[in-house]
Amino acid sequence: MSIACSEETETLPKDTTTFYHLCYVTSGNVIAGASTPFTFHVPTESELVAVEDPTDPGMLVFRSRVAQLQDNLQKRNDDYDQLSLKHRILEENMQVLKKELDKSDEALKTAKETVTELFTNKQGLEIDNKVLQERLVQFQQETHTIGQLEEQLTQIKSEKEVVEGQLKELRDEHDSIKKQFEDNQKGFLALKMENVDLVANMSKNYELLQEKSRLVESQASTIRCLQQDCERSTQALKEQVQLVESLSQRSEVLSEKLRALAAEHNAMVMENIELSKKSSSHAKVEELQKENTQLKKLLQETFDAADPTKIHHERANRLEEEKEMLQAMLENLEEHHSKCANKIQLLSSELRVLKNGEPSNERRSSEQSDPAGGIFEVVRTVASNFGNLIVPQESPVQKQPTRSGPPSNSSSEDLDSKGFEVNGEAMKAKLQQVRHQKSELSTQLVSLRHNMSEMNRELSEVKQDNSCKKNRIEVLELELRAAKEELMKIKKRKQDSDYGMLIGEHIEALTSGLPAISKFNEQVGILSQLQQKMESEKLENEELKRKVVDLLMKDSDMCSELQEMRDKYDDICEQLEIMKKTSQAETIDMLGKALDDSEFKKRDAETKLKQEVENRARLEQQVTALRAESVGKVSVDCSRKMQEHINSLELQLGEMDKFSNYMKKFIHFTFDERRNKPINCPLCPTEFPYTAEKKFAAHFKDQHMK
Questions:
Q1: Which SS3 state, helix, strand or coil, does residue 25 take?
Q2: pLDDT value at position 556?
Q3: Domain range spanning residue 672?
Q4: Domain of life here (predicted)?
């Protein structure tokens, strides 16, 4: 819009202080409006600027400084808009990259944890494999010793045959010599035979007593170990129950603290209401009260949404239910332990009875005949027949009754030996039952420990939630305190003339604080999403741990089976030793049967060992498969890319930090240092008071933006 102005006089007015107006007159000679005041004066060098013509770069054009500054300001505004758009785009990209970085960090952490766990499992399996190899070597050595024992048995058989041939020869010689014995030698031979029998029987009885006492001591030691294990398990369960009780007490204390904080919050709200009632004189103060009530509603809604008392009550109820369940399980385990103790007492009493009844059995076993006894019996019968033929003189030695040979009731001896074997088998079966019960108790203890670990994890999550909510409550309390301080300042400045302007400044300060609150809420939402992701990853880790625990349980079962096989093998070896000791009273057929049974049991043990080795190999294959899966997830290229990505994000974060520091300095300069100072127009020497921001904006728009 161009305006032409003409003066009737030839020269302009010389008085530069007089101001003129351009009036807009309608067709009816009515003044519709007037322009801003202006003066006529000769332009100075400071008001003109020499600028190159953009169409003709060699030409210089003189323009007014105001127009040039307006063009520069327009360019700066356009550049500022472009930079703000770029800044927003960079912020969005930074947030996306932050999320990706957090995801990659979490994936790396989980992968490292899984790798460490699998490495520890590998080490444990290698140790177990070494132990099994040592056990295999021991088993091979034991088989070698069994072969040596079999060779010794064959040698004993051959020696027995040689001894039988020698016996026949001795009998023939004895038949030729027995006529030469005299009556006095008969008594001497009888006494010597009785002494030899007594010495042999005493030595045998002493050895049997020693072996049985060793067995009784070993069984008593196993019973003591079982009792100690039962006591340890009960103590561990009691400690776990005490931990649960202490955790429930801590949760109650936290709920009481949260209630106290809620009461303080309500008191602060009531104080704000009273302050708002006292400061209801002015209309703008009423607008502030409305905004304050809206903020309070928002705070109350957030507080109600994040009310921790309900959550704590629910979790406390859950903990009480789990506590009752654990107490019931503890009572059941105590009853089971008492039953096991009763069984152990019964077994110990039976062992004592067997120990007390050993002398009779030993006497019965000592009455068995041996080859040397048969020789002496033949000599005794020959001497008695010779005495019947020749009537001897009576002597005190002949008046003593000679001891007859041992009875030949093989059926009674077989019954006694069978009864003893039945009692031994019953004792072994009972001991196996007790071991089985002990393994079941150990599995139950493992499950209880797993449950306690889950409860501890839940309590840690509850504590984290409580800490987050406490931080949120502290932030809200700080905001309430700031609002209270602003209200107190408003009360003190009621007498000032610029009361409305102060209220406007406070409103602008509150509006400037709203984006910070919204950013805080966004950060809280991001944190909640991250916590959910962490919980999902924790669940996956727990599943992997459960798989590892199952593998370990299978390994323990296999070890228990191997121990049972070893016990059976030891029993077989003991039976072989007993058979060797009692081989003088048994026939060759019985020894052959016993050897066949031992070979059959040995084969069964070897087959079971092979099965256990195969099962162990399967477990190792499963572990290697799990390790391969975990290693495949995190490769070297992936880790390198993630590291590069992390470095780039760190650089971007550094740039953003620099920009945020610059913005902080600018805000501090504009709102703190320039407060209560007049506003100077950058294009003209006019000044405005520090509360007249609207007037300055209107002046700049009207005077310099046309």
A1: strand
A2: 67
A3: 666-704
A4: Eukaryota
Dihedral (CA of 249, 251, 254, 255) sign: negative
What's the whole-number mean pLDDT along residues 396-417?
A: 43
Residue pointed to by tokens 């477990």 = 619
Tell whether 696 is covered by a domain: yes
Q: What is the pLDDT of residue 193?
A: 75
Per-residue pLDDT tens over the stretch 364-382:
444 444 444 444 444 455 4
Handedness of CA 482, 485, 490, 493 (dihedral sign): negative
Q: Beta 679-680 vs 687-688: how paired, if at all?
A: antiparallel
672 falls within a domain = yes
Q: Is 401 helix (H, G, I), strand (E, B) or coil?
A: coil
Q: Are 564 and 608 in contact (CB under 8 A)?
A: no
Residue 279 lies in a domain: no
If one compares 204 and 258, the residue with the highest pLDDT of the two is 204
Instruction: Report the 10 Å Cβ neighbour count for 7.
Output: 9
**What is d(CA 265, CA 296) in angstroms, rounded to the nearest whole number?**
11
Q: Give residue 392's pLDDT band: very low, low, confident or very high (50, 70, 90).
A: very low
- Which pLDDT belongs to residue 493? 60
Residue with tokens 């909640």: 528
Q: How many angstroms separate the CA atoms of 301 and 292, rounded?
A: 14
Q: Quick one: CA torsion of 202, 208, 214, 220, rounded to 10 degrees?
A: -110
Distance of CA 147 to the CA centre of its chain: 51
Task: Render pLDDT for 94-111 as a digit per residue (tens, 0 to 9).
Answer: 888 888 888 888 888 888
The amino acid occupying position 60 is L
State the pLDDT confidence band at 570, using cuts at 50, 70 and 90.
confident
Q: How far apart are CA 534 and CA 517, in angstroms?
A: 25
Q: Rounded CA gap, 70 and 63, in Å?
A: 12
Please state the domain count of the chain.
1
402 or 252, which is more confident: 252
What are the residues whose beta carbons fall under 8 Å from the beta carbon of 545, sequence distance 6 or more? 117
Residues 6+ apart with CB under 8 A from 291: 507, 510
For the purposes of burial, counting CB atoms within 10 Å of the CB of 5, is it exposed (0-12), middle (13-18) or buried (19 or more)?
exposed
At residue 459, the 3 state secondary structure works out as helix
Question: Which tokens belong to 76?
Answer: 């700066």
Looking at residues 215-242, what average pLDDT do you find? 72
* Top mean-pLDDT range of 55-59, 70-74, 696-700: 70-74
The DSSP bridge pattern shows strands 31-34 and 48-52 to be: unpaired
Q: Say if CB 336 and CB 443 are below 8 A apart.
A: no
Total Cβ atoms within 10 A of residue 15:
9
Q: Rounded to an integer, what is the distance from CA 495 to the centroid of its chain?
A: 65
How far is C-alpha 311 from the geometric centre of its chain's CA atoms? 24
Residues belonging to the chain: 706
